[in-house]
Amino acid sequence: SDVISKLFNSYIPAAMNFPSPGYMGFIPSTGIYQAALGELIAKVANRHVGHGRPSPFLTQIESNVLRWFANIIGFPKTAQGIFTCGGSIANLTAVITARNSILTEDQSLSTATIYMSDQTHHSISKAALAAGIRSKNIKIIESDNGLKISIPLLKAAIEQDKKKRLTPFLIVGNAGTTNAGTVDPLEELSEISLSEKIWFHIDAAYGGFFALTKRGKEALKGIELADSVTMDPLKSLFLPLGVGSLLVRDGTFLHKSFDFNASYAPPLEYGDDSTFDYWDPAHMSLELSRSFRGLSVWLPIKIHGISAFRSALDEKLDLASDVNTFFASSKEEWDVLYHPELSITVISAKAEDKTLEELNSINMRIIDEVKQLNRIYLSGAYIKGKYTIRICVLNLRTHKKHILQLFEDLSEARKKVLTKY
Fold first, then answer.
1. How far apart are CA 40 and CA 16, in angstroms?
2. Average pLDDT over residues 16-40
């Protein structure tokens, strides 16, 4: 009893409280009761879903959920996917799949080159290094003033690298960046990838499930053209930490990249049994033994229906619009640096006659002051050399009253900080 008491009364309260409605920092992972119940059932049942033969119906459940995801973004019936522990492993799996699918056996890995913007999540660079790509061949393309990848600079980089006898094999697009929620010009990136015969991966870990909404689908136009897409249910589907996903337009590429042959574990071939229509997950990923992750996704959707999640996402888009409107109308006190394409607004305090260094310090102190009030949690980010205040509205429990509290706390914090300058 002492152990449990310490856990709930001391250790857990000392950790960052993601489920709090006032949590608007980084990218929240809300967590809901039905997902926790699904995870509890999965742990207690302790069934192996790496192969279909030991758990055919449970493995089919995961396959069905991944097909739902594929339908959300407009992928064809050829699509297959896997559940991962999060977006980082999904991105690693995508990089390996792209490498194995595009590069031929006579092409040296030392010349393999990938392209991404300076706003792309660092997990992509880590994935490239883990996949054997040389750091000098990870090409970071400068983003434009709207934080979108520069198409002219990307085209120029590819042409220059081909002249150097490098082998471009992967372009990464963003469908909701971590810093500002920016969406790259996905259709243009697809055109380049097709003309250059380069794999096109989209990191939609944050933004992907906004495609459930009309506004989100419009913002993510072109996502259906990707070769692979990372989507994190732990982010914009409001589920707990520990469940990410990767979808591949043509599942055979995923299967060929991770298929293996073990005498003790013969695979369930696709179509072996008309009752089931999936490849073994272990033959499409790095993992063999793993938990039944899909249940924590399937159960909440079956209980609430997908319309409940769509409505929640629409509410977050509405709240983000309210945030943008408030700060845009407070021009004497705040600058809106990047308006929300999805649910992130990026602002800065307005302070006349301050250097960039002073303004950066002011924004940092404002965030700290807001945290001290213990009602709202915000995070900041350096964007184009300026330290900014990020407001990410993606918590299932965040509603209008919490946004009004945000306005009050930020205004109070700004006044307090500026009295010291």
1. 22
2. 95
- Give the count of domains, the chain: 2
405: domain CATH number is: 3.90.1150.170
Q: Looking at the structure, do residues 288 and 389 belong to the same domain, yes or no?
A: no
Confidence of residue 420 (pLDDT cuts 50, 70, 90): confident
CA distance 326 to 318: 12
Cα 74 to Cα 95: distance, rounded to the nearest angstrom: 21
Domain co-membership, 124 together with 202: yes
The domain that holds 229 is classified in CATH as 3.40.640.10
Whether 269 and 407 share a structural domain: no
Among 265, 288, 304, which residue terminates a domain?
304
Which pLDDT band, with edges at 50, 70 and 90, does 273 fall under?
low
Based on the domain organization, do 166 and 263 belong to the same domain?
A: yes
Same domain? For 244 and 284 the reply is: yes
Predicted confidence (pLDDT) per residue in 70-102, tens digit:
999 999 999 999 999 999 999 999 999 999 999
Q: How confident is the model at residue 306 (pLDDT cuts 50, 70, 90)?
A: very high
Among the listed residues 323, 327, 334, 345, the one whose alpha carbon sits nearest the alpha carbon of residue 400: 323
Q: Are residues 22 and 41 in the same domain?
A: no
Contacts of 368 (CB under 8 A, 6+ apart): none
Q: List, in sequence order, every residue forming a beta bridge with 138; answer none if it has no partner.
A: 114
From edge to edge, which strands make up the β-sheet containing 334-338? 334-338, 344-349, 386-392, 379-383
114 and 139 both lie in a single domain: yes
Pairing type for strands 244-248 and 344-349 reads unpaired
Return d(Cα 169, Cα 119) in angstroms, integer: 20
- H/E/C letters for each residue in 206-270? CCHHHHHCHHHHHHCCCHHHCCEEEECHHHHCCCCCCCEEEEECCHHHHHHHHCCCCCCCCCCCC
Spell out the residues 6+ positions from residue 245 whose beta carbon is closer than 8 angstroms to its own: 66, 69, 81, 82, 83, 84, 90, 230, 231, 232, 233
Beta bridge pairs of residue 220: none
Identity of the residue numbered 60? Q
Residues 49 and 197 in one domain: yes
Q: What is the domain range of residue 390? A: 2-30+307-418
Cα distances from 90 to residues 48, 94, 180, 245, in angstroms, run 20, 6, 21, 6
With CA atoms as reference, report the closest residue to 407 among 316, 334, 337, 314.
Answer: 334
- Portion of the chain with pLDDT greater than 70, in percent: 97
Instruction: Write down the pLDDT at residue 261.
Output: 80
